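Box 3.1 A note on notation
Throughout this textbook, protein chains are presented in two layers. The first layer is the amino acid sequence; the second is a token string describing backbone geometry. Keep the layers aligned when reading.
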Amino acid sequence: MDDVNALIDALIGQAPELTNTSHSSEATADGQQGQIFRHQALLALTEHPDLSLRQQAAEMLAEHQTALSLAALQRLSADPAPEVRLPAVSSLSHFSDDASVLPVLLERLQDSDYLVRSTAAEALGNRPQLPPQALEALIGVLTDKNAVVRATAAEALGAQNAFLASPALEDRLLDSDQWVRFSAAESLHQIAPEEEIWPLLMDANSKDTTARLNAIQALGKLLDRRAIPALVRMLKDAPELTPEVLKTLQQFHDPLVIPALVETALFTELAHLREQALLDAQQLSLNKTLQALSDWLDSDNRHYAQRAIEVLHHLPTEDCHPILLKALEHSDSWVRTVALLSLSGRKVAAPADRLKNLLSAAQPQDLQTAALEQLMRYHPDQSIQEMATFAQAEADWQRLSVASHLHYLPEHILDQSCESFQTLLHDSSSDVREAAMMSIGKMPYANCLPFLIQGTADEDSWVRQAAVAGLEQHLDPQATENLLTCLAEDSDFLVRARAAEALGKHISQASWQGLNQALTDDKPSVRVQAARSLFQLHQQGLPAELSQFQTLLQDSDRNVLITVLEQLRRTPQQGLQQALQGHLSARDPQIAAAAQQAYSAIS
């Protein structure tokens, strides 16, 4: 009390207009009169222009339970300064029996300052039983933008034992703030103390890590479905508890957890937890898992949709196909691209009209390339115009794209698209010509032969190699003759080696003779391929003389010699024992071992 009186004296000293000397002396002499005076001084200070004086007066009026104090505090609760409104609302809480305080506190629940709102909520919780409209106001504050206010409102409803607030408090178990979740669980426990779940949820949202782990495990044994939302919330904001929470959620065997498991599979950093969450979700319900992923695709957040399509891309189920097809209309080009690539990998055709829409110049390069591939692969008759457009485009990637996918076209399209083929085979880019030749080489049609023969005369050796590789499957005298020419005359040894390999399938005396001549090529790689093809032709019935094998065993190159020895092991030839003996003691262990195997096969 002495401190209080000293403070009042100090306040009076800062406001001399409130007193005079004679009156002050009389008040000092008479204690009761002094109290009255000090009360009057405090009431006067509530209107003082100095903010700090009004603030201190608001704090001290709580000790004066009078109608005048109540009226002054009600006025101060609407003061322009939140520093004054806050102690005024706090002091009003001491007038718990006065009905006129309730409207003021309810009004302050909407204050612009969060501390004032929180103080009003606390004051309401400490009052006697609140009427329904006041409880409804408190319930509304549970969604306040500030976590302090939400937590205080939750505690106030618990103090009021507000049964009707239970659904709203259960919603706060999913709050983003840990204190709010704890307060909600604590209040639910006050409202329904006989239920075991609420203390567990309090522990699950406490600051003690050990208590949280124990509570999560206990919730898995309790298997109360009301715990699922709280556990789901922990997956989002307590990554250190994710493994234990996932393990607990599994025990519910409830599809209600699927959206949370899918969200974990999309956004958890640890790969093994993402995989486990997605696996758990699928085991509960594949359809609901796909629905949850589809919902993420519809999200306004582009990042979420991208993560969802990535997960769908790796799910090996046909149930994904409708979602992937729908994703082709997504606003994000990356989502559309991944969806289309996934459909192509699954060999699922997208509608031609949708693919053509993806070929517009506004679309990204990867998306256009994937769309053109699908169009040529599944709708070749509708792709002729698009092929011609891409074949004549200025951008190399467009011409390369159509060249790389020519092999999808059926035979009758070749005649209709001959001009596009010729355009690509005469392209200024060797990469485009090579891609076109490789595609044509995969086609088994007879009318591809002229294009392949044309390719063997290209100025670029890689294009010629692709042409030679394509001629391998065309067992036509014209193809054989062209391969023999490449083997004998091409300036690039890689082309000659590829021709030697291809001739192993062209069973003819001309092939045999050409390959024999290639055994004198100055490049070992050509001689290796020629030797292999000669053995291949011999296995197909072409006769060989012993002297030819003896000549092969005399080659100076290690790789050629090992190749011949391995072939002799597979195709033993009598009469070569003496020729092989010279290699049994070779210094090269690989040659010696190969010679021993070939010798054993003959013996």
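Confidence is low (pLDDT under 50) at residues 17-30. The radius of gyration is 44 Å.
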